[in-house]
Design a protein that fits this description.
- Chain B: Its cofactor is Zn(2+).
- Chain B: It is found in: Cytoplasm.
- Chain B: GO terms for molecular function: acetyl-CoA carboxylase activity; ATP binding; carboxyl- or carbamoyltransferase activity; zinc ion binding.
- Chain B: Its EC number is 2.1.3.15.
- The complex is a heterodimer of chains A (about 325) and B (about 280).
- Chain A has about 325 residues and is an alpha/beta fold.
- Chain A has two domains: about 5-55; about 60-310, 2-enoyl-CoA Hydratase, Chain A, domain 1 (Alpha-Beta Complex), CATH 3.90.226.10.
- Chain A is about 50% helix and about 15% strand.
- In chain A, strands 1, 2, 3, 4, 5, 6, 7 and 8 form an eight-stranded mixed beta sheet that branches.
- In chain A, strand 2 and strand 3 form a beta hairpin.
- The longest helix of chain A is centred in the first third of the chain and has 20 residues, at about 35-50.
- The termini of chain A are far apart.
- Chain B has about 280 residues and is of the alpha/beta class.
- Chain B folds into two domains: about 1-50, no CATH class; about 55-275, 2-enoyl-CoA Hydratase, Chain A, domain 1 (Alpha-Beta Complex), CATH 3.90.226.10.
- Chain B is about 35% helix and about 15% strand.
- Chain B is built from eleven helices and nine strands.
- Chain B has a seven-stranded mixed beta sheet with strand order 3-4-5-6-7-8-9, with helices on both faces. Chain B has a two-stranded antiparallel sheet with strand order 1-2.
- In chain B, strand 4 and strand 5 (about 120-125) form a beta hairpin.
- In chain B, helix 6 (about 135-150) runs parallel beside helix 8 (about 175-190).
- Chain B starts with a helix and ends in a 7-residue tail after the last helix.
- Classes of the chains: A alpha/beta (about 325), B alpha/beta (about 280).
- Chains A and B meet through helix 7, helix 8, helix 9, helix 10 and helix 11 of A and helix 6, helix 7, helix 8 and helix 9 of B.
- The complex binds zinc ion.
- Zinc ion (ZN) binds near residues 27, 32, 49 and 51 of chain B.
């Protein structure tokens, strides 16, 4: 059963009514066909209207929807023959960032991204997508490998942020993020990043300083979470909605600010309503971007990335 | 009556308040009352407990450059308030306040000068200006400082101090992380040294970009340096943080920086470093 977000309650009620009527029809002899159809049309219209004008704060909730596809679902849908590679060779294997060799429509790539997990056990295993220094150092290692063997890098970003913890600080969280960002910018191979869910601050940018940055329609990308911003500037996390509005965290805004290059459309009602469709759309977008970059030389790729970030002001 | 009151009352020609505000400085760490003139003459370091208090841009340049002479570089022109941001206050009003307080356009100032005869470009991030926070102007100033160094073939020494990124510029402040990193790569290409001096406090997105990418990393004693804020970490782990956590000495112990240097020894140390890292025949 799908979970609904707070603002989806009217839609939930209509859809529940439809389900209820269907059940009655199955059991009895009453013809509910017309009524079901009428309600379905109404629910769909409501869904379309709601999602056409989601506020930034509502988008944040969609981006964090527990049933939204995560890295593992994308890999299953996008890649053939995924071969995960583990470890930073110094401390540990961080499950908050997964990466490895893959083929996307026959193209060989290094595919990596944050994994949040989708139930209690897996969320704990993947630390809710909050990577530690070893996660970023694994990403650096994989990017170096890709660079040496001429494999484009494809990254999928979905993190509330880098993990704030004592050991993470001890092992150099800041340095690890800084070096990962630096590595993205040094690559002589194409890099395509997509913000698929939450793009949380430095923990996101560390694997997203790419030649092309894509973003799902209802994903968010921000310097700090709306709650964090609100608790600092408004002195209460209750103002998260205002903070989300003020910070400009949506794909449309970020495209206007030239921070991202392309908005990827989601199925009606968000990626979680039709994950296969969302994954397919993303796959085609990534393939297009990879092909667009394939003719550039190493120097051109580096120069393009440098020019792009120097121009952001 | 405490000894301080006795001293104060012993000065007949100054009213009480004026005496307290203008003559004495109370050390934030050990509470010692130090003559303001002594405090300033000691580079804002407590003569009793060695606490390194924050220091202004001008004072920093004075301590560093030969004969107290330097040339300030102009602050780059940047777009202001790109998001038309407003929280409980307008961002433009916060900027006006910060400018009135510091007499600076934004939080990072570059200058050219000499340290023990060696030409360098120095950037100083000013915590007094909106917590030193990194927005478009700070990012542009880091780029400008590095490019001035490249043009003049000099090392770039950057004194960092910031609570992090400037939230009022939203994602554009986050984008200063890759942007400044690109300028650091140009510096690397030019074969010139980039030396970071981490001062209190350096946290958040600033630490997670140019503040941790120095060829040599120095920190001032006791400086708070880290990625995540201590309150956020405490909320996450639900326990007290270890003694000295995220302080300069802690980072040194964990291999994150090269050295902790007393403010009084900084100029000599920097001059020595610049001497080692420049003028070598086989530099890349
Ligand atoms: Zn003291």
């Amino acid at each position: 059963m799908m979970s609904y977000l707070d603002f989806e309650r009217p839609i939930a009620e209509l859809e529940a009514r439809v389900a209820e009527l269907r059940e009655t029809a199955n059991g009895g002899k009453i013809d509910v066909g017309q009524e079901v159809h009428r309600l379905e049309v109404k629910a769909r219209k409501l869904l379309r209207d709601t999602y056409a004008k989601l506020t930034p704060w509502q988008k944040a909730q969609v981006a964090r929807h527990p049933e939204r596809p995560h890295f593992k679902e994308y890999v299953a849908g996008i890649a053939e023959d995924f071969m995960p590679l583990a470890g930073d060779r110094a401390f540990a294997d961080d499950h908050a960032i997964i990466g490895g060799l893959a083929r996307i429509d026959g193209r060989k790539v290094m595919l990596m991204g944050h994994e949040k997990g989708n139930d209690t056990a897996s969320r704990l295993k993947h630390n809710f997508g909050m990577a530690k220094p070893e996660g970023y150092r694994k990403a650096i290692r994989l990017m170096e490998l890709a660079d040496r063997f001429g494999l484009p890098v494809v990254s999928l970003v979905d993190t509330p942020g880098a993990f704030p913890g004592v050991q993470a600080e001890e092992r150099g969280q800041a340095e690890a993020i800084a070096r990962a960002t630096e590595k993205c910018l040094e690559l002589g191979v194409p890099m395509v990043a997509t913000i698929v869910g939450e793009g949380g601050s430095g923990g996101a940018v560390a694997i997203a300083a790419a030649n092309k940055v894509l973003m799902f329609e209802h994903a968010i990308y921000s310097v700090i979470s709306p709650e964090g911003c609100a608790s600092i500037l408004w002195r209460t996390a209750d103002k998260a909605s205002d903070a989300a509005e003020a910070m400009r965290i949506t794909a449309r805004h970020l495209e206007e600010l030239k921070v991202i290059d392309r908005v990827v459309k989601e199925p009606l009602g968000g990626a979680h309503r039709a994950p296969d469709k969302a994954i397919d759309t993303l796959k085609s977008a990534i393939v297009e971007e990879l092909d667009g970059l394939s003719s550039l030389s190493r120097d051109e790729l580096i120069a393009q990335r440098r020019a792009k970030y120097l121009a952001i002001s | 009556m405490s000894w301080i009151d006795k001293v104060r009352n012993g000065i007949p020609f100054l009213p009480k308040r004026q005496a307290e505000d203008q003559l004495w400085h109370k050390c934030k760490k050990c509470d010692a009352m130090v003559f303001l003139r002594e405090w300033e003459g000691n580079a804002h370091v407590c003569p009793r407990c060695d606490f390194h208090d924050r220091i202004g841009v001008k004072e920093r340049f004075e301590l560093l450059f030969d004969d107290g002479k330097w040339e300030e570089l102009p602050s780059p022109e940047v777009r202001e308030d790109p998001l038309k941001f407003r929280d409980t206050k307008k961002y433009t009003d916060r900027m006006k306040q910060a400018r009135a307080k510091t007499q600076r356009k934004d939080a990072l100032i570059n200058a050219k000068g000499k340290i023990d005869g060696r030409p360098v470009v120095v950037g100083v991030q000013d915590f007094a200006f909106m917590g030193g926070s990194m927005g478009i102007a700070v990012g542009a100033a880091v780029v400008a400082g590095l490019r001035a160094a490249i043009e003049a073939k000099r090392p770039y020494i950057l004194f960092t101090a910031a609570g992090g990124a400037r939230m009022q510029e939203g994602i554009l402040s986050l984008m200063q992380m890759p942007k400044t990193t690109v300028a650091l790569q140009e510096m690397k290409d030019a074969g010139l040294p980039y030396i970071v001096v981490l001062t209190d406090p350096t946290t958040g997105g600033v630490t997670a970009s140019y503040a941790m990418l120095g060829d040599v990393q120095i920190a001032e004693p006791g400086a708070l340096i880290g990625f995540a804020g201590q309150r956020v970490i405490e909320q996450t782990i639900r326990e007290k943080l270890p003694e000295g956590f995220q302080r300069a000495e802690y980072l040194l112990e964990h291999g994150m920086i090269d050295m902790v240097v007393h403010r009084h020894a900084l100029k000599e140390k920097l001059a020595g470093l610049v001497g080692y890292l420049t003028g070598n025949k086989d530099a890349a």
